[in-house]
Design goal:
This protein has about 150 residues and is α+β, with helices and mostly antiparallel strands. It has one domain: Deoxyribonuclease I, Chain A (4-Layer Sandwich), CATH 3.60.10.10. It has two helices and nine strands; from the N terminus they run ββαβαββββββ. The chain has a five-stranded mixed β-sheet, with helices on one face. Helix 1 runs parallel beside helix 2. The N and C termini lie far apart (about 40 Å).
Length: about 150
């Protein structure tokens, strides 16, 4: 399924059934740093709003190349974060994910979800790993296929 087109990014989305009845959408995004941010942000907000209206639960993460640490300094980032929050979108990563000798820390890798249900989310965070100046982010989910049955012993 294609959700984001012509906005300077690469994305991949899958839908998986769950044991709790609703489909669960998992998406990965890479927004190219040389591409304009506002068209991407607008399309991403429309995507999240659409998923919310369809009553889907989702997890969308990746390298957005949008520094959320600039929330108080750049109006387009303030509007982006506030728009996502207004439609029930929760950011799981709130600490810097990129460090460089030449730059101040930034938060470019994002993970968004629309539920904080402990039946779904085990934990999320940032992995300290120095192979790149970007730190990997992660989330552990507890999704069970509806056909899986518990065995009694």
């Amino acid at each position: 399924m294609t959700y984001l087109q012509n906005v300077g990014c690469e994305s991949f989305f899958i839908e998986t059934p769950t044991s709790f009845g609703k489909p669960f959408i998992i998406g990965v995004i890479y927004h190219h740093p040389t591409q304009a941010l506002p068209p991407f942000q607008d399309k991403f907000i429309k995507l999240v709003t659409h998923l919310q209206k369809k009553n889907c639960e989702y997890l969308i993460g990746g390298d957005f190349n949008c520094n959320l640490l600039k929330y108080h300094e750049q109006s387009n980032i303030t509007n982006f974060v506030d728009s996502l929050a207004s439609c029930g979108c929760i950011s799981l990563i709130n600490n810097p994910t990129r460090f460089s000798k030449n730059c101040t820390p930034s938060l470019l890798e994002h993970i968004y979800i629309n539920t904080c249900d402990e039946k779904i989310i085990n934990n999320a965070g940032i992995t300290i790993y120095d192979i790149s100046d970007h730190l990997p982010v992660f989330v552990n989910l507890k999704l069970h296929h509806p056909t899986q049955q518990k065995h009694k012993t």
